């Protein structure tokens, strides 16, 4: 017997996550690059809308500066389910920083004893516990080769990679990264990012000019160049795998995207063509392919959370140690001033005549958890659907849409 899934057979509780102030450029209209037929609408994603958007949930990481999205896609036949983890961040916002990831990045990396490769979560712990950063997001970028030396790495304006001891397959020359993520700081202190094919001469000039704040290698080649797909032939047959990608929109927004794959998290993974296709659909004008497969890892710390969480599912069954990553960090401290109250639930749709418990968390203007207002009360946008008290919703059987709300000062927070 076929089960109906229409909205009229369930009560939909909307606004389960009340979002903080979101930067306009993060959710600006995605360009429809007509020459590539790549689109991203509320329901379609990819070349000629190959993928259907099954769900998209957004979570603030740093209010006004960084947002995480978790998106589930599938094709028309239901045979290519994809799970994407995305961070969009405004690097020019002083509330956030973009920093390269390397375990013990503060050590003297000219000494081989300080070279390392670590799981992304271990890197992030080091950045928080030793370096004092507040990591709110991160992803792997570059793999290691014959040694664990940093290949191309700039931290706080100093080049600390490329020591010449890592060699190519013929054993004679240093193997440079294919692409690179740059973080620039100009004379006025403005921060911006760029993703380019690696060029040693260009790299050296940026350093000499004193405008290069950070840089980290990206293992493989560019997938989007000046708004054009590098691989222009649509195909879905090349090896699908977990993928890590990084790109920049025309407005300067940095996009970090990781795709679960090889069956992990019930996600097929992207083939080669889909690397560029996905980043173009997300609005990137420039994008590159990071180390993927078992190395692909994605973490985030959403507003109100005290610790970061690995959101991706490793396709090897456990994290793989890798050389480099990229972290998004928060530069702001708690304010104690109420911004929003997040109402949380594991589900969006509920059967009539059921009882369900919701959670709630007060968030301050910098994204930190705080005490709930003493006068906070629960309410329904339409009381004809049932009752809600102390987070317990009791349906009276009426079908339709209703919002769960929290009121303070007699206003919806």
3D structure, described in words:
There is one protein chain. This protein has helices at 120-129, 200-209, 272-281, and strands at residues 11-14, 38-40, 44-47, 51-62, 66-75, 82-89, 96-101, 134-140, 153-155, 158-159, 179-185, 191-197, 212-218, 222-225, 228-229, 243-249, 254-259, 284-289, 298-300, 309-310, 325-330, 338-344, 349-350, 355-357, 359-364, 369-370, 377-380, 386-389, 392-395, 400-408, 411-412. A 10-stranded antiparallel beta sheet has the order 2-3-4-5-6-17-16-18-14-15. Strands 1, 23, 27, 30 and 31 form a 5-stranded mixed beta sheet that branches. A hairpin with a 4-residue loop joins strand 16 and strand 17 (254-259). 7% of the residues lie in helices and 38% in strands.
């Amino acid at each position: 017997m076929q089960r109906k899934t229409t909205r009229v057979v369930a009560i939909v509780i909307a606004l389960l996550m009340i979002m903080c102030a979101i930067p306009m450029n993060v959710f600006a209209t995605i360009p429809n690059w007509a020459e590539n037929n790549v689109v991203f609408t509320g329901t379609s994603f990819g070349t000629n809308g190959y993928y259907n958007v099954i769900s998209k949930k957004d979570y603030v990481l740093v209010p006004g500066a960084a947002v995480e999205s978790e998106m589930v896609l599938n094709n028309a036949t239901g045979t290519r389910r994809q799970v994407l983890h995305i961070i969009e961040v405004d690097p020019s916002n002083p509330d956030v920083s973009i920093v390269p990831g390397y375990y013990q990045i503060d050590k003297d990396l000219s000494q081989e004893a300080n070279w390392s490769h670590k799981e992304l979560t271990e890197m992030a712990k080091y950045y928080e516990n030793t370096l004092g950063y507040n990591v709110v997001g991160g992803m792997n970028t570059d793999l290691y080769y014959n040694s664990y030396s940093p290949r191309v790495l700039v931290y706080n304006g100093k080049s600390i990679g490329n020591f010449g001891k890592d060699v190519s397959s013929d054993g004679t020359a240093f193997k440079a990264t294919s692409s690179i993520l740059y973080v620039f700081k100009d004379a006025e202190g403005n921060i911006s990012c760029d993703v380019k094919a690696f060029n040693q001469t260009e790299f050296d000039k940026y350093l000499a000019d004193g405008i290069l704040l950070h840089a980290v290698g990206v293992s493989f080649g560019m997938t989007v160049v000046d708004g054009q797909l590098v691989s222009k032939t649509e195909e879905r047959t090349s090896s699908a795998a977990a993928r890590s990608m990084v790109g920049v929109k025309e407005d300067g927004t940095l996009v970090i995207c990781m795709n679960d794959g090889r069956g992990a998290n019930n996600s097929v993974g992207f083939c080669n063509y889909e690397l560029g296709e996905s980043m173009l659909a997300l609005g990137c004008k420039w994008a590159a392919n990071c180390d993927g497969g078992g190395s692909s890892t994605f973490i985030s710390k959403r507003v109100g959370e005290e610790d970061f969480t690995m959101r991706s599912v490793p396709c090897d069954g456990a994290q793989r140690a890798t050389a480099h990553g990229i972290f998004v960090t928060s530069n702001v401290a708690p304010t104690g001033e109420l911004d929003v109250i997040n109402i949380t639930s594991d589900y969006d749709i509920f059967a009539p005549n059921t009882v369900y418990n919701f959670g709630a968390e007060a968030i301050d203007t910098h994204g930190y958890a705080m005490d709930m207002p003493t006068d906070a009360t629960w309410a329904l946008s339409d009381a004809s659907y049932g009752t809600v008290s102390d987070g317990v919703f009791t349906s009276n059987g009426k079908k339709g849409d209703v919002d769960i709300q929290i009121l303070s000062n007699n206003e919806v927070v």
